[in-house]
Amino acid sequence: MINGDDLRAMRVNAGISQDGMAKKLKCDRKTIINYELGVSDIRSKQLFLWFLYCKIDAGSLLNEIKQIRDITNSKEKPNLQDEEP
What is the pTM of this model? Predict the structure, then answer.
């Protein structure tokens, strides 16, 4: 799990200020502070943008998610609402 310390470390390593990250994510600096302090959780869309701006390769994570999805889809049983009475 990625926590606030990880977010801060990525941002600092990339040379991005809290203000700079806030501008990139189109949010308040206070939001960035809250993410980094663990007061609030970062949304997935913003997390992937954070990776992008910090030059973190999320490709392997995305590939693993796609593999899991493909396996699940191939094994998936019909939903209860899809079953006939």
Answer: 0.76
| C-beta separation of 50 from 25 below 8 A | yes
* 83 within domain boundaries: no
With a cut of 50, which residues of the chain have pLDDT below it? none
Residues 11, 4: contact at Cβ < 8 Å?
no
Tell me phi and psi for residue 10, to 5 degrees.
-60, -45
Give tens-digit pLDDT for 15-38: 999 999 999 999 999 999 999 999
State the CATH number of the domain containing residue 42.
1.10.260.40
